[in-house]
Amino acid sequence: MVPSAAGCSRGTLHMCKTLCSTPAQLKRQMHTLDSVLDALNRHHQRATYGAVAGLLGKKPRSLLQGRKRDWRHSWVVNQDTGMPSEYSSPMIHPSIAEHAYILATEDELEEWLKDSAA
């Protein structure tokens, strides 16, 4: 149920949107694509398209649509190859394989983001 200004039982519409949100909605409000990309780039950590898309409530295929193919975006990778899709070598960060482990699920990515912010 989407709250309306008139029908919100918890006060203002803004508060109701926050208090009435599901855990998945709250998770999406906490992270943006840019904040995830910044953290992955800062720590040289790969995450799958599916993990990032799941965290943000988006579809993996359209996650980076309209964005540059560059080093910062290259940390989001295909689950099978461990590499970004349709990137040529100069577009891929030179340290892409620095860490063997790839964050493959939304839950793993969310936990890693919490730990990396601490």
Could you say which overall geometry the principal axes of the C-alpha atoms support? globular
Poorly predicted tracts of residues: 1-5, 14-18
Quaternary structure: single chain
What is the rounded Rg? 17 Å
Explained architecture:
With 118 residues, the protein is mainly alpha-helical. The chain has two domains: 1-30, no CATH class; 31-117, no CATH class. The chain has five helices and three strands. The chain has a three-stranded parallel sheet. Helix 4 crosses helix 5. The model is unreliable at 1-5 and 14-18 (pLDDT under 50).
Which key terms come to mind for this protein?
3 strands; 118 residues; mainly alpha; 2 domains; 3-stranded parallel sheet
Secondary structure: elements and pairs:
Blueprint: H1 13-19, H2 23-30, H3 33-43, E1 46-48, H4 49-56, E2 76-77, E3 102-103, H5 106-117
Helix pairs in contact: 4-5
What is the structure about, briefly put?
With 118 residues, the chain is mostly helical. The chain is 39% helix and 6% strand. The radius of gyration is 17 Å and the shape is globular.
